[in-house]
Amino acid sequence: MTKLAELFKARGPIRKVGFIGMGYVGIPAAMLQADVPEREKVYGFDISPYKINTLNAGENPLKGEEPGLDDLIKKVVTEGKFECRGEYDVISEVDAVCIAVQTPFKDPKDLIPDFGPLKSAIGSVGKHLKPGMLVVLESTITPGTTSIMAREILEETSGLKAGEDFGLAHAPERVMVGRLLQNLREHDRCVGGIDEASTQRAVELYSPILTKGTTIPMNATEAEVTKTTENTIRDLQIAAANQLALYCEAMGINFYNVRTGVDSLKGEGITRAMLWPGAGVGGHCLTKDTYHLERGVQMLGPDKLDYPEGESSIYVLARHVNDFMPKHMITLTKNALHCDSLKGKKLALLGWSFLANTDDARNTPSEAYYLLAKEEGAEIRIHDTWVHDYAELEGVVIEKDIATTLDGADAVIVLTAHNEYKFLTPEEMKVMTKNVHPAVIDGRNIINPDAFLDNGWIYRGIGRGDKNNLS
Ligand code: SAJ
């Protein structure tokens, strides 16, 4: 038995747990740990006094509906099993500490992650690290971060040795807003230690919160690659649909018929996972995880990678195809309005959030379309009843009334598939535009081409080569 395994054994079962970062990952994870009978105490740590006070009052600081979370917070706080702190000193008392802080981009344009908050959290843990403790990183990180950067910071700040005095692992989160507790309980959990003892201790930490899910042990780098790959592959699948949609438009055929045909392949090992084309790919996951994976292989194996000479990574190419889609929406808009420039054209954008029926506008394709159209001098109105004032982009006002948005529009651009847009009729929309032949550009396949064409609209749609009548 290794020295570390001996230390874990001497400590006995995990009784106290710390969570750094009270966000949409850390809060539900900490509450589930606090609700495990064997746990005596769970400490949450955050820099926000609002979050600390709200959580210690047994309230939920997260916005949006999270089934079961409010009651769970109240329960564990009332039972005295959870407490939120601003200071890290009590970390020296815990058996395991999980770090779930965001790894945003410094500047989305250069796609370099800002590991500042993560490094600072790891350093704070290191200062209070004791022999026999386990440190787990839950944030999405570049492969190699756990076994290189995190290990170095923890060893430097604690004077202890990873893999001998303390355990270190990566257990990436797989939670979706709106179903945080359910995902944490039911999704399988990849658990990757820098060594066997760390992996086993992490399995011991996560197993009790799983209901349908199971732990999948592996090493730390494999866990980091798993997380970044699951989003990279999804982005690739979407890009495959986007590229095929562009092909179908060029060939004058209906992508959705082709998709139905391809999707009809069923049975052992022959099915095809065909996703959907659209006005672009936004959000916090798919837009960055490909670049984490690419940086990982560059960092861990630059001189060992065998790959077709001079060819781009298909994963990065997929990102470029997906990032091209807002540009394609501009092309379809110009084609519909028979113009080379959108200068002076009145455009009504439907949807600002990156995902239908949510308020999340992070890296939204709508912004890419807006900036391209703005650059050409178009007059733009934006509608979205889910997203509130979008302060991050000066001058962007989000309308809440559809008639105001459509008033005088030359073209209506569907960028997000919010349910409310699916019930708009060509007749009522045309009246709102006060335009005899307005154009509609459908980026999310929610417009019925014939209904609008029969009502005197000009129609263009992603993947609808059969209806686009491209000039
Ligand atoms: N999109 C398409 N075509 C598709 C699916 C999505 O264009 O067929 C676009 C969406 O409009 C959106 C973007 O891609 O702009 C991302 O959509 P998403 O459904 O992948 O939603 P995300 O970004 O919230 O992805 C998250 C991820 N979850 C985690 O990282 C824990 C992802 O791994 C999940 O698969 C996804 O949620 C999910 O399935 O809900």
Tag the structure with descriptive keywords.
Rossmann fold; binds ligand SAJ; N-(1-d-carboxylethyl)-l-norvaline Dehydrogenase, domain 2; six-stranded parallel beta sheet; alpha/beta; elongated; single chain; 3 domains; 13% strand; 471 residues
Summarize the structure.
With 471 residues, this protein is an alpha/beta fold. It has three domains: 211 residues, 3-Layer(aba) Sandwich (Rossmann fold), CATH 3.40.50; 86 residues, Orthogonal Bundle (N-(1-d-carboxylethyl)-l-norvaline Dehydrogenase, domain 2), CATH 1.10.1040; 138 residues, Rossmann fold (3-Layer(aba) Sandwich). Helices cover 39% and strands 13% of the residues.
CA-CA gap between termini: 73 Å
Q: What is CATH's topology name of the largest domain?
A: Rossmann fold
Uncertain parts:
none
**Percent range for helical residues?**
25-40%
Bound molecules: ligand SAJ
Beta-strand percentage range: 5-15%
Overall geometric form: elongated
**Rg from C-alpha positions?**
25 Å
Corresponding CATH superfamily of the largest domain: NAD(P)-binding Rossmann-like Domain
Strand order of the largest sheet: 3-2-1-4-5-6-7-8
Largest sheet: 8 strands, mixed
